[in-house]
């Protein structure tokens, strides 16, 4: 039995797709092993958004060859779609597969027989029109379920449409069937992922279903305790979606909404499809219905043309918004994007300074949000990550909680009272039952 190991760079979508690839191998009789367990085959799923994607890819290939010098190394993923030739020239690489080919790798790679040169199976991105249902299965606490792929937007900094193709989705019927299958395992929480999941519902270029109907259907799936929406564009986060989450049985009060800039001039240059006023209105709508809802925000700093004043406007906008944390990205030039042609390049020193300021703001926001939750009872889902005698978990509204390790807690949902914030910035808890006993 040949042994195969996987390595994933990048986002939740890549993780869900790696799991699906692993299942395809297992169905054909391969044994899935750890990276260091002398595999015969490595599959490295790459990302184009990751800083230094090329260096990271090279490093993983080098490590793979150290572990198993005679192994067959296959590269798939976004970076493989964008730079197949460069990747095929990395020492140790045996095969590179593009976006339209990656799920056919078992048929395309001829029993993983090495050839004198690396083989490339790659088509233009317009050929990536098929949809492959994917979900991750490594972590028994949480599963990432892909519901949508690709993107029809044209944000000027983004290479994802070039690497993943046009927007396309699974059907609600198929997703519900997959969710029921996941419910048979011990998974408690499903995170819906995609490139642009608010755009859910396009099949072969025709809009056939709606995101709102998807979440309504999933809310009825027995056996899964929680659903989380990973990230959704503000212009697609409709009142109906917010109102449904507010009354839903299983969708948790947590949204991650990319903002990218709090300055309308920069949003226009980025070709985002909203102005900052719409973003503020979405946040206000959420908070009016779910005051304890956690709201995460993606921001890019240092985009071409972003002056000090523009940045300060973004800073002030975020400071005034009732949000819970930021994911800060430093703009970096990507080949084949429109942004790279724009004037007003921001110096690295300014990019670093702005990034630091927003990281500090993010910590301030997170702490404030956590402080608002102290004294309340929340249901915590504990993970399988014991460290220094402690275990971690998340509440429905994404407060990170720490407790003394107890194997019984792993993968359990437990209502607990949030008591204080410790020096590591996570929240300490206490038993609710004990408290009741003490008071009665
Ligand atoms: S919405 Fe914009 S940033 Fe997001 S994947 Fe599409 S093009 Fe990229």
Automatic annotation (TrEMBL):
Question: The Radical SAM core domain covers which part of the protein?
Answer: 137-371
- Among its keywords, does the record have Repressor? no
Q: Which UniProt keywords apply?
A: 4Fe-4S, Cytoplasm, Iron, Iron-sulfur, Metal-binding, S-adenosyl-L-methionine, Transferase, tRNA processing
Q: Which domain of life is it from?
A: Bacteria
GO MF annotation terms? 4 iron, 4 sulfur cluster binding; metal ion binding; tRNA (N(6)-L-threonylcarbamoyladenosine(37)-C(2))-methylthiotransferase activity; tRNA-2-methylthio-N(6)-dimethylallyladenosine(37) synthase activity
| Domain called MTTase N-terminal: residue spans | 2-114
Which InterPro entries does the record match to this protein? Elp3/MiaA/NifB-like_rSAM, Methylthiotransferase, Methylthiotransferase_CS, Methylthiotransferase_N, Methylthiotransferase_N_sf, MiaB-like_bact, rSAM, rSAM_horseshoe
Q: Which GO terms describe its cellular component?
A: cytosol
Q: Is Transmembrane one of the keywords?
A: no
Instruction: Write out the catalysed reaction.
Output: N(6)-L-threonylcarbamoyladenosine(37) in tRNA + (sulfur carrier)-SH + AH2 + 2 S-adenosyl-L-methionine = 2-methylsulfanyl-N(6)-L-threonylcarbamoyladenosine(37) in tRNA + (sulfur carrier)-H + 5'-deoxyadenosine + L-methionine + A + S-adenosyl-L-homocysteine + 2 H(+)
| Enzyme Commission numbers on file | 2.8.4.5
Q: Which Pfam families match?
A: Radical_SAM (PF04055), UPF0004 (PF00919)
Required co-factor(s) are:
[4Fe-4S] cluster
What family is it from?
Belongs to the methylthiotransferase family. MtaB subfamily.
Task: State what this protein does.
Answer: Catalyzes the methylthiolation of N6-threonylcarbamoyladenosine (t(6)A), leading to the formation of 2-methylthio-N6-threonylcarbamoyladenosine (ms(2)t(6)A) at position 37 in tRNAs that read codons beginning with adenine.
Against PANTHER family, the record matches this protein to:
CDK5 REGULATORY SUBUNIT-ASSOCIATED PROTEIN 1 (PTHR43020), MITOCHONDRIAL TRNA METHYLTHIOTRANSFERASE CDK5RAP1 (PTHR43020:SF2)
Q: What is this protein called?
A: Threonylcarbamoyladenosine tRNA methylthiotransferase MtaB
Chain's gene name = mtaB
């Amino acid at each position: 039995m040949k042994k195969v190991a996987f390595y994933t760079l990048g986002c939740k979508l890549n993780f869900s797709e790696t799991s699906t690839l692993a299942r395809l191998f297992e169905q054909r009789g391969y044994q899935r092993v750890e990276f260091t367990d002398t595999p015969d085959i490595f599959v490295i799923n790459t990302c184009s958004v990751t800083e230094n994607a090329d260096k990271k890819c090279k490093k993983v290939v080098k490590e793979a060859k150290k572990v198993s010098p005679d192994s067959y190394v296959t590269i798939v993923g976004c970076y493989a779609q964008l730079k197949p030739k460069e990747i095929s020239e990395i020492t140790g690489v045996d095969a590179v597969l593009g976006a339209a080919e990656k799920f056919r790798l078992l048929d395309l790679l001829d029993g993983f027989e090495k050839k004198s040169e690396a083989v490339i199976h790659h088509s233009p991105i317009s050929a990536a029109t098929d949809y492959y249902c994917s979900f991750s299965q490594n972590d028994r606490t949480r599963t990432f379920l892909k519901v949508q792929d690709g993107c029809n937007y044209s944000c000027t900094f983004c290479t994802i449409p070039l690497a993943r193709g046009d927007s396309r989705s699974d059907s609600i019927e198929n997703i519900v069937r997959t969710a029921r299958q996941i419910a048979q395992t011990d998974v408690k929480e499903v995170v819906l992922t995609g490139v642009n999941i608010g755009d859910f519902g396009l099949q072969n270029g025709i809009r056939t279903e709606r995101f709102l109907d998807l979440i309504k259907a999933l809310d009825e799936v027995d056996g899964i305790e929680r659903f989380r929406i990973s990230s959704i564009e503000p212009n697609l986060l409709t009142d109906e979606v917010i109102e449904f989450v507010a009354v839903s049985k299983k969708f948790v009060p947590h949204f991650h909404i990319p903002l990218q800039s709090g300055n309308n001039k920069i949003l226009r240059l980025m070709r985002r499809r909203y102005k900052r006023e719409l973003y503020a209105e979405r946040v206000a709508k959420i908070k009016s219905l779910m005051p304890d809802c956690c709201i995460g925000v993606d921001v890019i700093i240092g985009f071409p043309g972003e002056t000090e004043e523009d940045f300060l406007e973004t800073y002030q906008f975020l400071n005034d918004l009732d949000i819970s944390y930021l994911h800060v990205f430093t703009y970096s030039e990507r080949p084949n994007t429109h942004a790279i042609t724009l004037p007003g390049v921001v110096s690295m020193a300014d990019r670093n300074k702005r990034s630091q300021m927003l990281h500090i703001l993010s910590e301030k926001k997170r702490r404030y949000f956590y402080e608002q939750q102290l004294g309340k009872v929340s249901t915590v889902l504990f993970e399988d990550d014991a460290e220094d005698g402690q275990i971690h978990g998340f509440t429905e509204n994404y407060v990170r909680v720490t407790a003394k390790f107890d194997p019984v807690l792993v993968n359990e949902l437990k209502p607990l009272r949030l008591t204080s914030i410790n020096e590591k910035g996570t929240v300490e808890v206490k038993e609710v039952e004990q408290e009741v006993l003490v008071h009665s």
